[in-house]
Amino acid sequence: MSLVNKKYYALGTVINLTVATPAGEEELEAAYELIKNFEDKLTVNRDKSEVMSINHMAGIKPVTVPSDTYALIKRAVLVSRQHLGFNVAIGPLVKLWKIGFKGANKPSDADIQERLRIIDPERIQLDDTKETVFLEEKGMEIDLGGIAKGYIADKIKELWSGMDVETGIIDLGGNVLLVGPSLHEDRMWNIGVQNPVEKRDVSLGVLRTTAKSIGTSGIYERKLVIDGHEYHHMFDSKTGYPIKNNLASVTIVSDKSIDGEVWSTIGFYQGIEKGLALIESQPGIEAIFITKDLEYKTTSGLRDKFFKI
User: Fold this and answer.
1) Rounded distance, CA 82 to CA 278, Å?
2) pLDDT tens per residue, range 257-293
3) Annotated binding residue at 271?
4) 265: annotated binding-site residue?
5) In the CATH scheme, what is the code of domain 3-30+147-308?
């Protein structure tokens, strides 16, 4: 048995897909087609998509979307309404700062205050019967960037399961979802966790695990430096500024990749003490918190599974 790997570019990042033989090209291409299909539906980086059809009608009228898109939006809205740090309505604020994109800047306080008014998830109306979504005010936008990759990874795992893929790795820009046992004798996986102050693929430690999702939110991916101040792309919906704490990254280990995306964002927002306690109380969700000083803490379920290099 050997591994077959292909690299693609989609979802604004490098996609790495790997399957063990006898699976191969057909299973990899099927996964890539699925990714492109969901990107067409969910993106906010193009003028047309199912999500953009909702954004274009903000303040005007509700928009009907297909059942799968509606279910994903509903999940994102309900999580956002818990006000734990994940916010599907944060799009207008992200677009104001543009961190990681052309024209990145530190906006004026007045512009930030204006956006804070319209990034309220309570002002998104959902109708389960008609499967419509309505943004109550013009300028409001939903952005599934913080949840879509996890959702798509889970869908690939489902697809591969139906194609009898026994072992595989779904890596959507660093969000990793493992399928089946590894090819090592003990069938366990060893996954590197990024050192947040080093270049990509330099690990701080290794996680030894069965087939799980490993998803990270960190400040090292995109940032803006102005007058010696560093601003990262993880925003606080209450202040309109990047989240202020001593964390560099939060890695979540879970069964589903969508849970990893949601909880890594919440964990980062909550900070190391509150975040650890909150995640400790979630069944099936484990976490590794790494500070800017490269100190780390894990939830109890990972104490004998994560090893610093």
Assistant:
1) 13
2) 999 999 999 999 999 999 999 999 999 999 999 999 9
3) no
4) yes
5) 3.10.520.10
